[in-house]
Structures are given as structure tokens and as C-alpha cells.
RNA sequence: GUCACAGUGGCUCAGUUGGAUAGAGCAACGGUCUUCUAAACCGUAGGUCGUGAGUUCGAAUCUCACCUGUGACACCA
């Protein structure tokens, strides 16, 4: 079913010998619109060697090309345009999707090998903000894409459950908090202490010293400090899990930073043995000036560890435990230097697998052009956004489809889907300013648009439930109205590959929008349930579109309600 | 200051490996529900692709310089 090969072969027969198959492969392009054919070959590069104008060359070659197997081959100016045979092409594509179902587009690139994915990683005792949404949904989608390529993703929630921040929290709690307040509304009250701490520490720097001291106690195993810490953590996880459930995200491990607490000495020892550790200004560092980077701080002046120390331990642990082929980190791009350092230090330690680590970075969400900061108290709470979106979806359902069953479930799927899709539809590196109206929009290039397209298509299939189009031998569909949709269906496997190669869920989101739009155009102009010779093929097309739309949404972590 | 990333219609963004008149969505204006869900479809209007050079038959795409924005730059993560 390799239609491009058909074109390449036809060209090779008539092109001068010095042009290789590889060159032809590279030169062939897909025209922007179907009226210029399905493949095109530009003849400019032949002009010099043949001493002829490109459009003359194109005209010449068209005369020589064997047109068998094509609908037609023509030239437009300097281009040779190939039009595929719609009947056989559609027959092949539709059979492939109907047979493979949700497995359509699966690949075996990963051969079942392990790929740990460091994702979500919210900080204990802080509410989940829109910022955490990004790491969570990108990670979730990347994991699904990896799985489709037959890697074995291992989703790790690298909780921010260790560090000086807990010293601050303990200080704040002891000064202004009470057990009753925390139990009543854990995250919000803990957040209050944290924000107040930062405010007061501006005038009273001794508070920072106190906080550092408490964290040092945690590292030294102090009972009171650890008891408070465990309590904060437990309460936080309960709230996080409620949100993860709404997003449909699960994890294989919740090994946060604290998990590596007892693995830190080994890493520091190794660094020392390899002569990488140096003392500088009272702290222990790995010098990276040979790479124009500031040093990696391994131990603070007071002996406590830092972010990178824990990440070194985590990287090593993951290699030892999972024997990964690649190890992914879904973390904001503001930390790109951290990962550069992390990989470098591992490399200096002699670990070649440092090269298999990839930082999958994403852009910042800002509000009013400013970075979200828990410390300063300007956060956009994820749960609030989800609820706003779901409420709006419910309102729309009541207006547009008041008789719908299980309205609440559908509203949840549509509202949450809109938020998740919005986050994934643009390149992950792009930063965007938060705008509620835009995030919960249901029209145009949105998640609900894709969901709605799928729901309408399913509605047609319900009306044709008594027909066995799926078993029909002939699924050829020469209808030009359906052509773009059929070609898009055929592209799906290549889309998966590309999304996987560059770790970009947006590639799939964009594809889903394109497919939905193309199908909506077809739907608006053609009557599908007509009793004529093309009925089986049309129904197979509708069925294939629902299969691929649903799988696309699934890969993005968005639900596909059957009715809405 | 150094490094990284970005700059495409009023707004938000597409644009594999350079290719045919730069595409969508929102917002604006106009049209389409007695027929498979109008969260849809069709049309109109709107762009010197940050600026200036260079490479090329051909540049939004590659190179260089500059401008603007954002982020990172040792005891936070």
C-alpha cells in the first residue's frame, strides 16, 4: 500500500540515471491542496544538467511516464503532479483501519523496552496550579505515545517532598498554624503559612536560617520534624489524587525526592572517589567550568543536599532498577541548565547512559505576562479551572442537548477535555498567557470540536447498526468529497512516528483537528446513509474516522463521549 | 553582562527535510437546520512572515548581524 513508492518507481524509469532513488524520495512533496494531486515532483534541479527550462522538462517527463496505476499524471508549470487511484487507495486504507481498530498505527520501534518518565512532580503542601497541569498531561500523553510505539513507559511522579521548603513550612506552621486549621483545609492553610513565611522573611532573614535548620533536622532523622513532614505529605497526596482521577492520569511510582534520601551518600561517595568533588566557599561542588557552566552544588555549607544531588541519585537508581533505553524528564524549560549539568556530571562519572536522558521541556504559563509563583501568592488553581470548564460544559449541554442521558459524565469529559486539549495543542515549548475564556472554549480548534465530530459520526453508525459494512470486500470510495479524509486516515501511522520522535503531543492534537475538520466538511456535503452501491464504503469511512479520532484523543488523555 | 528559547493578519497559532498564489481558529460581517446531533458547514474582509544583509534556480524555513520579549545564570526546586 506504499503509494509513494509507486510514484518513485514511475519517476525513476524516466529520469536520467544519475538521479538516485534516495534523491527522488527526498524531492517528492505533498501538494498543499488536492487539486494539485497527491504527490508532486519539482523539476528545477534537472534544469542545469538537461539545459532546458523546468516546465519543459516536466512536460516531457509526463509524456514518458507510465500512467498505469494512477488516476492521472499531469504537469503544472515545473511540477509533475501525480493523482492516485482513489478506488484502490481508499479500499486499502479503509480495510486497514477496520481490521486493526485501535491498534491502527501501532509500531514496534520500542520492542518492549523500559522508558521511565519523570512527570507531574507537584510540590507537597502546595496546591496544583496550571503549571503542574503541563507536566502532568504532556507526560501522560508522551507515555501513551511511547506505549503505541511499543516502549514500556514507567510513569514516575517525582514528588517535591523534600527540601528547604519544608523547613519553611514547619517554621510557618509552628508560628501561625494549628492542627485544627490544617485538618480543616490542608493545602490552603499550608499555602498560607508558606506565603506568609516569604513575606516576613524579607524583613527577618533569621527566619531563613531557622527554616534551613529544620530541614537539616529532617535530613538527620529528627522525629518531630519528620512527623510533621509525613503529615503534610499525606494530606497533600489525598488532594492530588482527586485531581489525577479527574484527569484520568495514573502513576507507576510515587517515588519523590525523599525516596532518594538514603541513596545520597552513595552518590556523593562515588563523586569523591572519582575525584570530581571539590570544596568551594564551604560547599561541595563539581566544577563544570570546562563547559562554561556554573558548578553543580552537591552539598551545601551545612552539609545538606540539593536538587541536583537528589536527581543524580534518582538517575542512577532508575538505570539500576529499570535498565532503561531512554529516560525522560517532563520539566519546564527554565530548568534546561539543570539537566545539562545533570547529564554532564553523570558523564564525568563515567556513565555513558547519560546520553539516553532527555529533558522534555515545556514553556511557562504566565498570568498578565508574569510567571506564576506560589511564593508570591499568584497562582491559578488547576481545580478551579477544571470546575469552571465543566460547569460551562454542563450549561451548553442543557442548551443544546437537554435530553442527553448522564449529563454530568459528559460535562466532565467535555470540560476537562477542553482544558487538557488546549494545553496539548500547541508546541510544548511555547509559553502562553493564561486566559480562562480561551482555555474553556468549545468551538473551533478545541477538544470539544473533536469530541463532537466523533459523537456525530457515532450517531450515524448507530443508525446503521443492522448493516455489516465492516465485512464487505469492496470498500473502494472514489468520491472526491471523501478524498482528503481518506488520505488523512492513511497518514496516521506516520503522525504517530513523528509525535514519538520529537515527543510532541501537539502533533497528534493538530492531526485530530485536521481529521475532524475534513470529516465535518464531508459530513456537511454528503449524505452518508443513502441506499446505493457506495454505502458500505461510506460507513467504513465513518467507522474509520471514529476509530482514529478516538485513538488520537486517547493518546492525548482526552475522553471521547459517545453522545454530547 | 553571558547563555538559551521565541518574534507569521486585531487576538491565538499552523507551516517534516528550503519549493507552486503563506494556511487555520477566535473576533467582525453575510449565508445554511422539514432530511445522518448547527459544539457544525459555506462565504467576505484582514499579512512588506521582527529588521538588514548573505547562500540558492527558489527562503517564513538555512547563515551572520541587529532589534524586541521571556527565561536561566552557587548554597530554592
TrEMBL record:
SMART domains xrefs: Arg_tRNA_synt_N (SM01016), DALR_1 (SM00836)
Motif 'HIGH' region positions after renumbering to this chain: 122-132
Single Gene Ontology BP annotation: arginyl-tRNA aminoacylation
Entry-linked PANTHER family: ARGININE--TRNA LIGASE, CYTOPLASMIC (PTHR11956:SF5), ARGINYL-TRNA SYNTHETASE (PTHR11956)
Family: Belongs to the class-I aminoacyl-tRNA synthetase family.
Key word Cytoplasm present: yes
InterPro entries per UniProt: Arg-tRNA-ligase, Arg-tRNA-synth_N, Arg-tRNA-synth_N_sf, ArgRS_core, DALR_anticod-bd, Rossmann-like_a/b/a_fold, tRNAsynth_Ia_anticodon-bd
Pfam family, one: Arg_tRNA_synt_N
Name of the featured protein: Arginine--tRNA ligase
Main localization, broad class: cytoplasm
Domain DALR anticodon binding: 450-564
EC class: ligase
Enzyme Commission identifier(s): 6.1.1.19
UniProt organism field: Companilactobacillus nodensis DSM 19682 = JCM 14932 = NBRC 107160
Description of how the protein assembles with itself and partners: Monomer.
Keywords tagged on the record: Aminoacyl-tRNA synthetase, ATP-binding, Cytoplasm, Ligase, Nucleotide-binding, Protein biosynthesis
Domain Arginyl tRNA synthetase N-terminal, chain residue ranges per copy: 1-84
Amino acid at each position: 500500500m506504499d503509494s509513494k513508492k509507486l510514484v518513485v518507481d514511475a519517476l525513476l524509469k524516466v529520469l536520467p540515471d544519475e538521479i538516485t532513488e534516495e534523491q527522488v524520495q527526498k524531492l517528492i512533496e505533498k501538494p498543499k491542496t488536492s487539486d494539485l494531486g497527491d504527490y508532486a515532483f519539482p523539476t528545477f534541479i534537472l534544469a542545469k544538467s538537461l539545459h532546458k527550462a523546468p516546465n519543459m522538462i516536466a512536460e516531457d517527463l509526463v509524456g514518458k511516464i507510465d500512467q498505469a496505476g494512477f488516476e492521472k499524471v499531469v504537469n503544472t508549470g515545473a511540477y509533475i503532479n501525480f493523482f492516485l487511484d482513489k478506488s484502490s487507495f481508499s479500499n486499502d486504507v479503509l480495510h486497514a483501519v477496520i481490521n486493526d481498530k485501535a491498534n491502527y498505527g501501532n509500531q514496534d520501534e520500542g520492542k518492549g523496552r523500559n522508558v521511565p518518565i519523570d512527570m507531574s512532580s507537584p510540590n507537597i503542601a502546595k496546591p496544583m496550579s496550571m503549571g503542574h497541569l503541563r507536566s502532568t498531561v504532556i507526560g501522560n500523553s508522551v507515555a501513551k505515545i511511547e506505549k503505541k510505539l511499543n516502549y514500556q513507559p514507567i510513569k514516575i511522579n517525582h514528588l517535591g517532598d523534600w527540601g528547604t521548603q519544608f523547613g519553611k513550612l514547619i517554621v510557618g506552621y509552628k508560628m501561625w498554624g494549628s492542627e485544627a486549621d490544617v485538618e480543616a483545609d490542608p493545602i490552603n492553610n499550608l499555602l498560607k503559612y508558606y506565603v506568609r513565611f516569604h513575606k516576613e522573611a524579607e524583613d527577618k532573614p533569621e527566619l531563613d536560617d531557622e527554616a534551613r535548620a529544620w530541614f537539616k533536622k529532617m535530613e538527620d532523622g529528627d522525629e518531630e520534624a519528620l512527623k510533621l513532614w509525613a503529615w503534610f505529605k499525606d494530606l497533600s497526596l489525598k488532594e492530588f489524587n482527586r485531581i489525577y482521577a479527574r484527569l484520568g492520569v495514573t502513576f507507576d511510582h510515587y517515588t519523590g525526592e525523599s525516596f532518594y534520601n538514603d541513596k545520597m551518600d552513595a552518590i556523593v561517595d562515588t563523586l569523591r572517589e572519582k575525584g570530581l568533588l571539590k570544596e568551594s566557599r564551604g560547599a561541595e561542588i563539581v566544577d563544570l567550568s570546562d563547559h562554561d557552566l556554573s558548578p553543580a552544588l552537591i552539598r551545601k555549607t551545612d552539609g545538606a543536599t540539593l536538587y541536583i544531588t537528589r536527581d543524580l541519585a534518582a538517575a542512577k537508581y532508575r538505570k539500576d532498577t529499570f535498565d532503561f533505553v531512554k529516560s525522560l524528564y517532563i520539566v519546564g524549560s527554565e530548568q534546561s541548565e539543570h539537566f545539562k549539568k545533570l547529564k554532564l556530571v553523570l558523564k564525568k562519572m563515567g556513565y555513558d547512559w547519560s546520553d539516553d536522558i532527555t529533558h522534555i521541556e515545556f514553556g511557562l504559563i504566565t498570568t498578565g505576562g508574569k510567571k506564576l509563583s506560589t511564593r508570591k501568592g499568584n497562582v491559578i488553581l488547576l481545580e478551579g479551572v477544571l470546575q469552571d470548564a465543566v460547569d460551562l460544559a454542563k450549561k451548553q449541554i442543557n442548551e443544546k442537548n437537554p435530553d442527553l442521558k448522564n449529563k454530568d459524565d459528559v460535562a466532565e469529559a467535555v470540560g476537562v477535555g477542553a482544558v487538557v486539549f488546549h494545553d496539548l495543542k500547541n508546541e510544548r515549548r511555547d509559553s502562553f498567557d493564561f486566559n480562562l475564556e480561551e482555555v474553556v472554549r468549545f468551538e473551533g480548534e478545541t477538544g470539544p470540536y473533536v469530541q463532537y465530530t466523533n459523537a456525530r459520526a457515532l450517531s450515524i453508525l448507530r443508525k446503521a447498526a443492522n448493516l455489516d459494512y465492516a465485512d464487505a470486500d469492496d470498500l473502494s470510495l472514489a468520491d472526491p468529497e471523501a478524498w482528503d479524509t481518506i488520505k488523512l486516515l492513511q497518514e496516521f501511522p506516520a503522525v504517530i512516528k513523528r509525535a514519538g520522535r520529537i515527543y510532541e503531543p501537539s502533533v497528534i492534537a493538530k492531526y485530530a483537528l485536521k481529521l475532524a475538520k475534513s470529516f465535518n466538511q464531508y459530513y456537511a456535503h454528503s449524505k452518508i446513509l443513502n441506499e446505493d452501491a457506495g454505502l458500505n464504503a461510506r460507513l467504513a469511512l465513518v467507522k474509520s474516522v471514529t476509530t482514529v479520532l478516538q485513538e488520537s484523543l486517547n493518546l492525548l488523555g482526552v475522553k471521547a463521549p459517545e453522545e454530547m
